[in-house]
């Protein structure tokens, strides 16, 4: 075999070369952010130094990929945060010599953005469904623009700053405009940059803080409207048999499930490569002022739709692909002060 490879290389062919043996162990940490701060901090403080030392003694370089850090504002503006996370997971799978993915799943399903790219035919179905439901598709057409250079042709969500120029404006004078932009939420076709509508969304100058706050508020209001429009139309099309379950699910799925799909459920090898921790909070109080950090809330109560999706992920999808020896379930008592207590952190 080696002789054949050598012969092909000398003849000028660089195809089908054997993969180089990596000396890197790179692990992606996946979780919702607000409810797993204690676990993430414990990992960085206690586990990572020990794992790094263990790997160094064996000539390996241990690395952690944690997307709490390093997401640039231009990625937020262009709605590429999820794409960056999935790309990082793929890179960990590609280069890691050992484990490459660790997931923490809790009582919170997490942020559920709509896709930033929608195929042309599907977008037309959504637009027509909106009209059929008596809803104005103008917001869709404002935020999604067709890119005919893509194959297949896609509608792309525009940058936040395309409409809210002060979204990233950090100057004190524009803080109000920036928050106004953030309060409006985006919809997609080729999801346009936030700044295409909210020019002050990322404006960091002190003089623009009011504009920035207004832009942020306006943006998240937009997101809320777009989310409702896309989910209503996707539901209607699925009921009519025009969208599959998978096509519909794109408009309801959380970022965390997207990461788990890429890290565990996409047909990749998971034996000895991935670990999943599923935590339950015992006695969580949905009306507590910090409960929104640890569970999904809607209209002052538990978001039942999000909880149903979380149960499906934790109880059906994950156990169907990961060996029992790599799946850990644990329960932590609800702490009325912090949500998750660090009093017994070693045990937890």
TrEMBL record:
InterPro entries, per database record: DUF4062, NACHT-WD_repeat
Pfam families: DUF4062
Lineage: Eukaryota, Metazoa, Spiralia, Lophotrochozoa, Mollusca
Organism domain of life: Eukaryota
Domain DUF4062, chain residue ranges per copy: 26-112
Protein name: DUF4062 domain-containing protein
The organism of origin for this protein: Dreissena polymorpha
